[in-house]
Amino acid sequence: MTARGENGVRRRLNYRAGGDLELELSWYALTDVGRRREKNQDSYVTAPPVFAIADGMGGHSAGEIASAAVVRRLAELGGKALVTQEDIDETLGDAVDDIELDAGDTELGAGTTVTGVVLGTDAEPTWRVFNIGDSRVYQYFKGALSQITVDHSVVQHLIDTGAITEEEAEVHPHANVITRAVGFNEAPIPDYTSLALIPGQRILICSDGLTKELTDIGIQHFLATEPTAEGAARALVSHALENAGRDNVTVVVIDVHAVGDVIDTGSLAGSGIEITDTAPSPVPTGASDASPSDTPAQSLDASADATTANAPESVKTEHTAPDQPDSDQVPCDEDADIEPVILPGAPPKSEQA
C-alpha cells in the first residue's frame, strides 16, 4: 500500500491558481487490508487538485508495485495550477513504463485499476472524473446517490449487451475479470466525465473491496447519515469489513462546503433525514442495480426518502463503447467472488429490487 498526500478539514483552495474563485473542501482517505488478503495492494493519493485510488492486481507483490507506481505519478500533479486530461493521460502512460521496470517479468503480469477526480479546467466549477477498471466514483447529493463511473469489466459488458441481468452479474463466475487496466504493457485508456462541483456535494472514490460488501443502498445510508468526511469513510470501511472483508478496502470521501460565495447551509435534517439512533442500522450487502449519472442535476428532485428506501433512478453517463472481453489479455483478481454476507436483520436482496 502506498499513500500520497494528507487528509484535510475545511481547506480553502483556489479552483484555479491566480483566479478569484475559492473552494472549501474536506476530505478523508482510509484503507484496510481486509480479512482475507495477506497484502494490501490498494494505494491512494489525496494531493489537490488530484484525488484517486488504484487497486493493484497480479501475483505476489506485482499488484502492490503497479498501484504504487500509478499513485506516485499522480501525486506529481499535486499542487499544479491546472491539470488537463492530457496531463492525466501522460502521467498514466509514465506509470505503465514504471510498472514494467519495477515489476519485471511476472507470471501473471502487473497492473492496476485507477479512478479519481481532479479539479476541472472549465470556467464553471467542475470535477473531471477519470477511471480505468472497476474501482468507482459516486456522488451523494440532496438525498440521492449516483454512480458516476462505469466499470470496465466482463460482467458490465454482458449487462450492457443484455446478455445477463444485474442479479445474474452478482454471481457470475467472471465477476472479477476487468477489461481495462493500467499496466500489462498496454497503453492506458481512461474514460472521462465532467461533473458539476457544487456546495453540499459528497464525492466517494472507492476500490471494489467496498462494493463487494455493500449495496448502493448501504453506501447511500452511510454517506447520508455521517456528518463528516472522516465519519463516512470510517463507517464505510468498518461495515465492509464486518460484511466479510474479502478484499482490500479503500475509500476517499470529499465534502464540498463552499464554492465561491455559495455556501452549503444544509444539514442532515434539512435533507429530510431524521436520526433517532446513533448506532447505524443493518444494511444489505453486495452490488445493487443503480446506474450511473452524469450530472448532479439529475438527483436534485429525488425524494429524501430514497436515502433509507430504494436507490434513486438515474441516467447513464456517456462513456466509450463497452470493451470486448479478451481471455488472453484481461487481468483477474486472485480470488473468486463468493456471495456477500448479509447483516442480521437486513431485508433479503429480493426485497430491494
Report on the architecture of this protein.
It is a single chain. This protein is α+β, with helices and mostly antiparallel strands and 353 residues long. The strands form two sheets. Strands 1, 4, 5, 6, 7, 8, 11 and 12 form an eight-stranded mixed sheet that branches. Strands 2, 3, 9, 10, 13, 14 and 15 form a seven-stranded antiparallel sheet that branches. A hairpin with a 2-residue loop joins strand 4 and strand 5. It is globular and about 55 Å long. The relative contact order is 0.18.
Question: What is the percentage of strand-forming residues?
Answer: 15-25%
- The best one-word shape is globular
The parts where pLDDT drops under 50 for at least 5 residues are 267-353
Order of helices and strands: EEEEEHHEEEEEHHEEEHHHEE
Please give the largest β-sheet. 8 strands, mixed
Distance between the termini: 36 Å
Which properties best describe this structure?
single chain; 353 residues; alpha+beta; eight-stranded mixed β-sheet; 15 strands; disordered C terminus
Short description:
This protein is an alpha+beta fold. It has helices at 62-75, 85-103, 154-160, 166-170, 208-211, 216-225, 229-242; strands at residues 3-5, 8-14, 22-32, 42-47, 50-58, 110-112, 114-119, 126-132, 136-141, 144-147, 182-183, 191-196, 202-206, 249-259, 262-263.
Topology at a glance:
Elements: E1 3-5, E2 8-14, E3 22-32, E4 42-47, E5 50-58, H1 62-75, H2 85-103, E6 110-112, E7 114-119, E8 126-132, E9 136-141, E10 144-147, H3 154-160, H4 166-170, E11 182-183, E12 191-196, E13 202-206, H5 208-211, H6 216-225, H7 229-242, E14 249-259, E15 262-263
Parallel strand pairs: 1-4
Antiparallel strand pairs: 2-3, 3-14, 4-5, 5-6, 5-7, 6-11, 7-8, 8-12, 9-10, 9-13, 13-14, 14-15
Helix pairs in contact: 1-2, 6-7
